[in-house]
Amino acid sequence: MPGIMLDDATKDAIRAAYAKLKTGLPGFRTRRAQGQMVAEVAKALATPGGAAAIEAPTGTGKSMAYLIAGHAVARAQGRKLLIASATVALQEQLVRRDIPQYLEVCGLEAKVALAKGRQRYVCPRDLRMASAGGDDAQGSLGLGEDMALWSRPPRDEENRALETLANTFQAGSWDGDMDAAPTEVPEMVRRMVTTSAGGCTGRRCAHFHHCPFFAARRDVADAEIVVANQDLVLSDLTMPREDDAWGGVILPRPDDTLYVFDEAHHLPSKAVERGASHTHLAHAANPLSRLDRHVRSAYSHCEKERLGGMHYERGSELLATLGDSLTAMEREVKLHWTPGAHEIEPQWRASLGDLPAAWIAQAQSLMLQTSEIVRWVRAVRGAVVELEQGGPAAELLARELGMALERLGHQLATWTAWSADDPADQPPLARWVTMDGEQQVICHASSVSAALLLREVLWENAAAAVLTSATLSAGGQFRGYADAVGLPDDALTLSLPSPFDLTRQARLEVPHLSTLPDDRDAHAEAVAHWLEDGLDWDSGNLVLFTSRRKMQRVLQLLPIDKIRRIRAQDSKAKSQLVADHAEAIAAGHGSTLFGLASFGEGLDLPGKLCETVVVTQLPFAVPTDPVGATYAEWLEAQGRNPFLEVSVPEATRLLIQYCGRLIRSEDDSGRIVLLDRRVIVRRYGQRMLAALPPFARVIERPAVA
After folding, report:
1. What total of structural domains would you count in the chain?
2. Minimal CA–CA distance to 4: which of 48, 53, 52?
3. Is residue 687 part of a domain?
4. Which strands, in side-by-side order, build the sheet including 492-495?
5. Same domain, 536 and 595
6. Do 542 and 664 sit in the same domain of this protein?
7. Are 485 and 556 within one domain?
8. For residue 127, what are the domain limits?
9. From the centroid of its chain, how far is CA 96?
10. pTM
11. What pLDDT does residue 203 have?
12. Closest by CA position to 259, among listed 105, 399, 113, 459
């Protein structure tokens, strides 16, 4: 890798911005870790192909650190700074607070854009069709009932929502951002007035020049700083360009972009999800007759005998054959696998990804058939899009054919994955099948690691990239995370110290419970008993569970006077629960939040809102997950220990995240209570305890008779 290209002018710009931040930002406190992060982010982003993973605990001020360094380096290089987060909350914080504050305090001007996916904007074409009167309101446009936009008669509130959306968009008082819609939008209406990439005709659309999505894309193209979610960034990075490179289709080109992935502990799982696919066999077969009719209408509109080099009759035969092959695949699966009568969510997983030979043969046939149909339907849709005088009927046909192509593309991904040979030196793909409540088969495939994908689309393409989060390592050990994201060998890995005096501000308690979580019912009783007597019910508390079943069981065991002070996940929306919790604490009443993993990450409960965090059980992953199970099986086949290499580090990282809910500022104090004595009695537990922040420790020992 070439050396650092951080010139004196850029260094001076960074120092000047940081100095202004110190004097101009209200409540600013000098933190050595933040200064160190500024320096390391600047070095990594100034290095061609630079890469870094920086763990910055709560309170470091990491958003200001990467803004100061990243913006200065991006300006010096004439590149874009793209910040990718995992949550909407952080995106909004960056766009509405952090970036404007940074620019104002530092006396800088820069265009900033929030990049969102296509379905977060209204589609003017679909809005017009959906809100049109007469026959057009039903959407048939003379093409038959199967082209109807409404699957049922619209309700009054849906008609009112459509009217409001149409009127405000036409008047220019609403810009088409669905997140800022002028009225509550029912789900049926939202699906009708937004479109996916497959349903969009791009520059050929009559509404292209006033399309909110493409207006937003133009804003992104003009911006110096772009904020996006990780899903959108990964989607863009995995889109092939015409020059055989990856990315730069929706967002700026990777080789022209400096990336900062905040909340980067989510990146491995999001990248794995990006490469996953599934096909519900019945749902794949059922729309084929509808597609046949759409294609026939396309031939009629185009007034051509051959499209894509094929007569309609030949294409219709291919669709019928594909339907038969999907039925044959379902039959093959059911011949090999009969779920047990007791299975609530039936699942069969291929050991090391090895499918039965008959399934592979059928998948190969489906792959070839689907591939040919995709090529043909793409040509048919292209002919419809090119029609000069197609009108609304052609627009609706193009939309339907585009969405059909998307469905076929997802199916093709499944059959390609089921047909592929796995490299001998790499983990295999996970391949499995499930059944829905109607005993219909769903075929699944997924990579078990994000490393290969990220190496190809990110590390080998980006100008430079920095990954940051409060938790990336397991006690300063980055090996597990580096392997998970395919981090280059020469990348910087750095774990910054907490800016807080954690030994003074917090303590970690491990009470002596008589049972371990291995005995689920007995442990639930022990947890309930400890909570009843050991929790300060007059203060603000957060109690975290690893399973909904155990949370419900503990709720059943607690006395009614305690339950009245509990706000449990699923009883209301998360934001409402937190608001009710804050209101109760402000009124001087005790309040306790009960939640699962989502309450353990990203939840900000400063001061009195959270003075005790109770972790009822170590957060080990569910062992039935087919992706994790396949990877563990492969590690074992390599003579490695998946529990120690994967499960313990990941559980440790989550546990550190949970601990991070407690101390959010220099003024906070409280305790972490861990009701799982495996950290004491199991050998791996000592490793986990050692990796936790340096809280004061209170470990209860059993009483000696």
Report:
1. 4
2. 48
3. yes
4. 112-114, 225-229, 80-85, 257-261, 464-469, 50-55, 492-495
5. yes
6. yes
7. no
8. 122-204
9. 21
10. 0.90
11. 86
12. 459
